[in-house]
Design goal:
Layout lengths: L1 H25 L22
Length: 48
Amino acid sequence: MVDILIVAVVGSLVAGILWKKVKDHKSGKGGCGCGCCGGCSSKGNCHK
């Protein structure tokens, strides 16, 4: 029972973080260069 609660909490946290990233990207904050997402070499997610 505790396992299910832990998975649910972690899953909702991850979903919240992903939702915020999608929202920020749609509002134009996602493409603000290398400084916003940890440097140009991080995962290729930055718009250079």
